[in-house]
Amino acid sequence: MVSIENVIEKIKAYNPKADIELIKKAFAFSGEAHCSQRREEGSPYIYHPLSVADILADMKLDVPTIIAGLLHDTVEDTGTSTVDIREIFGVEVAFLVDALTKLSKVEFQTKEDAQAENFRKMLLAMSKDVRVILIKFADRLHNMRTIEHLSEEKRRRIARETIDIYAPLANRLGIGWLRTEFEDLSFKTLMPALFSELERKVAKRREEQERYISEVKGIVNEKLEAAGIPARIKGRIKHYYGIYQKMVKQKIPFEQVQDVIGLRIITDTVGHCYDILGILHSVWPLVPGRFKDFISLPKSNMYQSLHTTVVGPGGDHVEFQIRSDDMNELAEEGIAAHWRYKEKDSIDKKNTRFISWLRELVKDISDAKEFLEAVKGEVVPETVYVFTPKGDIKELSVGSTAVDFAYAIHTQVGHKCVGAKANGRIVPLRHKLNSGDVVEIITSPSHGPSKDWLKFVVTPRAKARIKQWLKTEERKKSIELGIKLLEDEIKRHGLPLSVLKSEKMEEIIKSFSLMSIEDLYVSVGYGKVSAHQVVNKFMPEKEEGEAAPKVVKPHKEGRSIITIRGIDNIMYHIGRCCFPVPGDSITGFITKGKGVTIHRRDCPNLERLALDNARLIEVEWSQDSDITSTVKLYVEGMDKPGILASVTALISGANVNISHLQAASTHDKRALLEFTLEVKNRNQIVSLVNKISQMDGVLAVRR
Ligand code: MN
Question: How far is the CA of 86 from the centre of ligand 1 (A)?
């Protein structure tokens, strides 16, 4: 288990001037605040903030970040106030702890909207100071590493959230190792059996590859040494979830997943990167179309590297990434690299293009759900560089169209664009742009965006702006329509139009839980509220009573003998596979568009359906059911005369109706009888099964 001494040693190694006393003080402060708390597995709570600080030290972060990591749960869980923290540890630490406390209050919900909104809050906090999110990541990483101590339900919830939100975000921020660990830990939690099987297979394949990799490494090392280029060659970490995704996406088993051998060469200077590239290409032929120079054209998150794939020994493809130490730090640590402790680094210098890119992203997309999509989507989109007629350069995702470009210039240029010229030639608006194109946008003041544009634009900015415009436009139209419908209805009742401005109107708006008359117009325009309902409220009480519509009960199959958590009137079907009867222990399964299907708990089909956990629902039989249910009974007996007649007589004698009967005999002289019966409840069928199985010549009875 990690100790404060370990953590301090780690920090000293990269930051010799760190204020160790203050870190020790924070450790003591946190220990005291959490002294009465324990973790789920029983260890003292302080191990959690200490482990978080340890992760932050691994990321080589600055002292305020480490201290905030130690204190991150104190305000949330104990009686500590931010004021105390400010007094002892300063404004910077207090700000970080406060931001983390606020973030921890927004528990993610399963509902997508709420999740997206919370996610946006996280990003806003982050755009103020990225260290907030780095501490949040470390917090989550430690919780994921120790997740086995939690209950099954909690484990699944946290793992889901990690894979849905934290992993894509870490990826977006360029922290590759963190994304990999988040995904693999979640994968392991959510699908333990599959994970361990994959782990085993990967290890086995790795063994086979080891010799090949060392052969390639040997050749490269020899060549680099001969050329006098300092470099280290590394293999890549296995990413189990990545393999799993390939299997799912391409619908192939593990054995068919093409495992390209990937090697990374890290050297000292940019010049040496290109030298190494030249050497590789002179040793092995390159695979066309796979060479990418992210050094001269970095990705938008500033990732730099040379990528190439060559046909290695024996014809296998080998993927190389070539980069300098600086580039490697950025590629591995992403945004965290900017917050690394570095001797003369000022805060200003740390506020790099990365942060402004992030701010742009937050600003661009007002709709939280879309934001989540944008972050989850194409990770670090590859870019094309397009020029304005004046020679300004715009960076766009690959696949961007003239419309994306127009929105990149200005929202109004986007809204008003009617045509485009690429390199002097008229092109359609959906025309995909290439790097180096000079693009001119033609606008018309009376023009607006079209819904069709959404089918081809690719940048989040263009998508968001178009949707926003359409939404506003739709609202405008609904208001117009709402006003017209309401005015017509008012006139029809012989009322003056001035009632719309009367005091009674305020009351009516509230009665529909709306905020303003405009909202009411919109609701009427959309048809959520009818004009009739509104105008009715102006009418004298009794007339309203007369006109009140009758509540019509929804149609359902047969009778109300099933309730869901006390609610009856549900639409349900009896499972045709297991024919449950009142008294059987049952479970409901939500069938799309058909309501709930009722199965017996021991129904073999249910095991398969239960994989889709969210669709299972608890149901019970209602008390008053003197209605009969269909049930199937299988009887196996010796094929001797009279057996069918005597079983049938017994059933009829018990006052049970036989609605269908099927009989067959096997070549080994057994009779197979299948009865379809109408029974009242479970007791009736149980006693029937008992009686039949005691009959002479009967071998087995089952439902
Ligand atoms: Mn925590």
Answer: 20
